[in-house]
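Milestone M4 deliverable, item 7.
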Amino acid sequence: MTPVNMAANVVVLGDGVRKRVTTEGSCPLSEYQDGTKALFHYRTVLCDDKRTMIDDSSERGKPMELIIGKKFKLPVWETIIQSMREGEVAEFLCDIPHVIEYPQVSRSLRRIAAGEDPRDGQRHCCGGIAQLHDHSLGYTDLDILQKDPQPLIFIITLLQVQDPGSYRQDAWAMSDEEKLKAVPVLHDEGNLLYKEGNIVEAAAKYYEAIACLKSLQMKEQPGSPDWIDLDLKITPLLLNFCQCKLLQGEYYQVLEHCSSILNKYSDNVKALFKRGRAHAAVWNASEAEQDFSRAVSLDPSLAPLVAKELKLLGERLHEKDREDKARFRDIFK
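Output delivered:
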């Protein structure tokens, strides 16, 4: 491995963590009391000649949020942030013991940024990271890093520091009571944003409300009355989320989420109709027709809408067939 030059203006923050400031901050250093929220962008790079990029949060459109004292899975980030002033940009070279969990953390953050549940596909086991070496994280670069841990460089841009009590907490940082109170507020905010045409922001609100309820549901026995009650609260939020994803063209997410609803509630008309639209969008004609037919049988008032969707699907299939035939003619010419 080629060593990285961190010699200029280096500060040692602790055993195995070195800092180099590239842009000075504009504010005094915060006291960083427990509950302080830091918003920052991060780039994660390898310690090689090319400084190979692993992650860049600025490409996801939303900064990372970290609350001091909440025991984030990557403790070194708390150490890093507490050394920074608002507006500061700095590089941190962290040795392997501080970043051994990074592949798992990165996977979760990538899934959250994609609007997916970070817990999906995880295998619960004991014995630490070593037992995960034969389990793919779903990302080739993270699989490599998990099997061959190495030091990492974090390039942090600290955007804002918010004092405790000056912001609304994210779902993972709330108490159970706070989560229950937040759900109807988030639902209403999502509905308002949707009516205003702010689809991406509306989806984020619905997703945040779902996250609150799912975190509560995980504490209940599956199938118990309390678990079912929470699931019935999640379902309409998930359908709203799917409607946003339909408008964003993220059809496979719609298929996944609507199928999860229908596996439990096979007569959910809204899930059938939305899944039918998603099937139609990805050329699953027979599956779309089956879902539309089932939806109409359960709710005949949907017949005009279904007829419109089927007509549109037929026109698209006819146009695709015409284009395919033209393409084959050109090939044989």
